[in-house]
Structure formats: C-alpha cells, structure tokens
UniProtKB/TrEMBL annotation:
Organism lineage: Eukaryota, Fungi, Dikarya, Ascomycota, Saccharomycotina
Pfam families, alphabetized: MoCF_biosynth
Species this chain originates from: Maudiozyma humilis
TM stretches of this protein: none
MF terms (GO), sorted A to Z: FAD diphosphatase activity
Domain MoaB/Mog: 7-175
SMART domains (alphabetical): MoCF_biosynth (SM00852)
Name by which UniProt lists this protein: Fpy1 protein
Length: 273
C-alpha cells in the first residue's frame, strides 16, 4: 500500500494580510485525497527569504511530495524561485524554453521597455541544474511546473492556473509515486446527528479505539455546524477497509440516532458562510 506523504506551502503576504482567500490548499487536499496521498501539513508563510528557506528545509526530509504556490511573478516580492533554489544549493538561470514560450505567446520585446522586459523575464529565471525538471503541460501556457528532485513542485498562486496545472500533473504524479490508475485508496463516510458533541464524545472515542485496532489509518472525527441543529461524524480510512468503515457508519447511525449523508451534502454545509 502506497504511503506517499505530502505537504503544501502557500506563499504570499496577500494571504496573510487577508487581501485574498487561499483556495489552493483545499484544492490540493482534495487532489491528494483522490490519489490516496496522505497530506500531512499545510502552512502559509509570507514573501520572506528566511521563512521560505527554513520551511522547505524542515519539510524536505519528511515528505515525498511538496508543493508551493505563489511568489513567482515579476515584482520585487516574488522570490520563491530563488529561495527554493537556495534551499537545495542550486543556481537560478533563465530557462531558454520558458523564455521562448513567453516570446511566442506575448511578444514581450515588442511591447516592453528594457526594465519591464528584465522584470518580465524574472518569471523565466528558474532553479537550474541536473536535479531540476520543468514540466510544460499545455501548449497555450508558457509557465512550467518547476520540480526539484521530483520532490518539490513550484506552482503559480493564481487559483485558475494552479488548479489547471495540478490536474494536468496527475499522470506524472501517478508515475513518480507508483500510484494505481483506478484504485482510490481513501474513502470517507459521513453521519449526521442532532446530538451534541458532548453527548457523543465518549462513544466516539470508543469507536476510534476499536477502529485503530483494525487500522491506524482509520480516523473518526466530529464536525459541529453552528446554527444548523446537527453535527457530522466523519469516518475516514483506506479503501481496503471499506466494508469495515461501512460497519462503523452503521454503528454511528445506531448509537447517535443519525443518518448517512453524502460527501456533496457535507461539503455544502461545511463551506457555507
């Protein structure tokens, strides 16, 4: 059974100061879940060299699959490429493939003054060396996913670009980490109950204790939904234990006077403001 561990680093002062909402980490979490990858850490940091370098250094030996989003534009605070290169002891240099693709798609020499052109090509100045591979996934996009050691993957922060590139990377991720084409390793069931968390806490702990004896990967959680009059119990585990997870769901229905709800119904409730 594959045990790929993943981490996500959101880079950008604009996330920390509340200017924009981070949706990339949630999209990545769903991506990992669908492939059976175990996402273990999500962290948001600013456009700060020391933070970026120290964060990546702390993660690189713990996780097999690390993504970063943000900080790869043309302005002074876009320092992700150079910081990640520094983390791995690599230089940065203009990637000629990226530069050519930029020229083909937007004719920068024909429309930008020298300083703007220099800043524009900052986005083509990538970590370089034999440990680096740049994935150009779509003919209509010049931006690559820059990968170091097939471990760290550097994405743009713009959600539309990030989501499209991440989906496009799926077959590469499957190949790199030897993930099956058909089997989704994790499944999850939800049970809705009108009982409060205090009322279900003890029995929920007993269910978790029983489940852990079957597999440490089975996680039982409770999610209160303020103002709705009900809470949701989550039962998560590996697909190989699906029958047992269904038994736990029926047990939760019985013990908490609950009923099963779909993933879509739970998403709708969880993401309402």
């Amino acid at each position: 059974m594959n045990k790929v561990r993943a981490a996500c680093v959101i880079i950008g002062d604009e996330v920390l100061n509340g200017k924009i909402n981070d949706t990339n980490s949630r999209f990545f979490a769903k991506f990992c879940f669908s492939l059976g990858i175990k996402l273990q850490e999500i962290i948001t940091i600013g456009d700060d060299e020391e933070q970026i370098v120290s964060t990546l250094r702390s993660m690189r030996d713990k996780y097999q699959f690390i993504i970063t989003t943000g900080g790869i534009g043309s302005t002074h605070d876009d320092i992700t490429y150079e910081c990640i290169a520094k983390t791995f002891g690599l230089p940065c240099a203009i990637d000629e493939t990226c530069k050519r693709r930029m020229q083909e798609k937007s004719n920068p020499e024909g429309r930008l003054d020298p300083q703007a052109l220099k800043d524009y090509y900052k986005m083509a100045t990538l970590p370089a060396g034999s440990r680096v591979e740049n994935y150009y996934l779509y003919d209509d996009l010049w931006v690559p996913i820059c990968s170091i050691d097939h471990k760290v993957f550097i994405f743009p922060g713009i959600p539309q670009l990030f989501e499209r590139l991440l989906v496009g990377l799926t077959p590469i991720v499957r190949s790199l980490f030897n993930l099956g084409e058909k089997d989704i390793e994790y499944v999850r069931f939800f049970v809705k109950t009108t009982k409060t968390e205090s009322q279900i806490s003890h029995n929920l702990k007993l269910i978790q204790e029983d489940a852990t004896k079957v597999s440490p990967e089975i996680k039982i959680g409770s999610y209160p939904h303020y103002g709705t009059g009900f809470n949701t119990i989550s039962i998560l585990g590996e697909k190989k234990d699906e029958k047992y997870l269904e038994e736990l769901m029926r047990r939760a229905e019985k013990e908490f006077d609950g009923q099963q709800v779909s993933n879509e119904e739970e998403d709708d409730v969880s993401n309402k403001r």
